[in-house]
Write a structure and sequence with these properties.
Distance between the termini: 57 Å
CATH class of the largest domain: Mainly Alpha
Mean pLDDT: 82
Strand order of the largest sheet: 4-6-7-11-10
Number of domains: 3
Length: 458
């Protein structure tokens, strides 16, 4: 709910103020062909308010079917007062958005300038004494419609071009769609005005088509939202596949090099062969981790449960296995108190969570930063595991979203990191009756805390 910008504020005050001056002068100084009838006036203002609640997407913008109410207003109400009544209907139509806090109150300042279109037709009908419906005056009705379009274009150009810097060509293209719909709806409003000459309330028959347009607009909005959701889901799948493919390329390239080394005719001593075997084991484990994460992600998105098998675990043993996964390229610094109770968790799932946290720390900290530190402590009847890094940290704006699906953040290399590790980590921890939280301060690193149930001491 953003307030009106200062540049727009000045423009709307000038253009809207000019409208109020012209419309008030018309209502007070020009003679009307009929008396003010409260009943039809209230009904038509309500119809106008309903019509501007209907947003029809056209071209690069949207329009409202206001002609359904505006045209009968010109012929059934005192014509000099119609511009002010149009402004009243517009205010009434926008008021629910303000009351429901979907729009800032300052945006009501757009309304007076929006009503400029009503001035031209009213002046034409008054000038040619055509304020009551007559079939012989149809050329004047066309002239009134042209006057409406002309003044609408001029007012729009002043507001959009001078006030907001929108190019006239773009504005005219959008207005072409708006005016086409206005021209097509005007005959329906004119027929209602003719019918109301003999039957005072005949124009009320316009409410059903207006309601139909409301239902149509909402149904179309729902379909567009659904289409956008599908497109967003497809984009996320593409990002997931691209990210997983990119992360798999590194261990695959290493394995390819190691296999080529083993297949060469150069002899390997026992120590070198053991190093190669350890490296291959490590890279295979990384590939398996990526594949498991990918499969878990698809299961979660399909609404299928993940397999969890909690058992008593010694955290020191789990962290030793974790360190072996990253060795020898990275030496993990971890410390577990001797009296720390065992925790109740799925070993493979806990390794998956911790691998994701360490991998996240490495990716965002960079190769030059110290390795992540892992600590643990007893927290009541639970065990808290903390993974700390000395990377660039996470901004306050990004911190609440770090566990979101495919969250992106700036890495130390200036590129963007993306993945599903933290997203799955949260799901896996919560599936084991645990919690995971993040704390960070830009320039001072980040820390992630995983809390899981502890096994009761004997």
């Amino acid at each position: 709910m953003q307030p009106i910008e200062r540049r727009d504020l000045l423009t709307e005050l000038v253009v809207g103020g000019a409208f109020l001056a012209v419309a008030s002068t018309m209502a007070l100084s020009l003679d009307a062909a009929r008396e003010f009838d409260v009943g039809p006036a209230v009904a038509l203002v309500l119809l106008f308010a309903l019509s501007i609640r209907i947003q029809l997407d056209v071209g690069q913008g949207y329009t409202v079917p206001s002609q359904l109410a505006f045209v009968p207003m010109l012929f059934l109400l005192p014509t000099p007062s119609v511009p002010l009544l149009v402004m009243a209907g517009w205010l009434l139509g926008k008021l629910p958005d303000v009351l429901m806090r979907r729009s800032h109150p300052s945006r009501l300042l757009y309304v007076p300038a929006n009503a400029w279109f009503a001035v031209g037709p009213a002046l034409v009908l008054i000038a040619f004494n055509a304020e009551t419906p007559e079939w012989g005056d149809w050329p004047l009705y066309l002239l009134a419609l042209v006057a409406q379009f002309a003044i609408d274009i001029v007012a729009g150009e002043i507001r959009e071009w001078i006030g907001r810097g929108v190019a006239p060509r773009l504005q005219l293209e959008m207005l072409g769609w708006v005016q086409a719909i206005d021209a097509l709806l005007s005959p329906l409003g004119l027929l209602a005005a003719f019918a109301s000459q003999g039957q005072r309330w005949a124009f009320l028959l316009l409410f059903p088509p207006a309601t139909l347009l409301v239902l149509y607009a909402r149904e179309r909005e729902g379909r567009l939202a659904h289409a956008l959701a599908l497109a967003e889901a497809a984009r996320r799948r593409e990002e997931l596949i691209a990210g997983a493919s990119h992360e798999m390329l590194t261990p695959l390239a290493i394995l390819r090099g190691l296999v080529a080394r083993l297949g060469s005719k150069r002899p390997l001593d026992d120590d070198r062969r053991e190093q190669v075997q350890q490296a291959m084991t490590r890279e295979v484990a990384r590939l398996r981790q990526l594949a498991v994460s990918f499969v878990d992600y698809t299961r979660v998105k399909a609404g299928r449960p993940l397999s969890i098998d909690p058992r008593p675990l010694d955290l020191a043993v789990v962290l030793s296995d974790l360190a072996a996964t990253f060795a020898p390229s990275l030496t993990l610094d971890y410390e577990v108190p001797d009296d720390l109770p065992r925790l109740l968790a799925d070993r493979d799932r806990l390794l998956q969570v911790l691998t994701a946290l360490v991998g996240n720390a490495i990716r965002f900290s960079g190769a030059e930063a110290p390795p992540p530190q892992i600590g643990a402590r007893e927290d009541g009847n639970r065990v808290r595991i903390i993974v700390r890094d000395q990377g660039p940290g996470i901004t306050d704006e990004e911190l609440p979203r770090v566990f979101d699906e495919l969250w992106r953040g700036s890495t130390s290399s200036g590129t963007e990191g993306a993945g599903i590790g933290l997203f799955l980590a949260k799901i896996l921890v919560e599936a084991q009756s645990g919690t995971i939280t993040a704390q960070s301060q830009p320039g001072q690193g980040s820390s992630f805390a995983v809390t899981l149930p502890a096994v009761a001491r004997d």
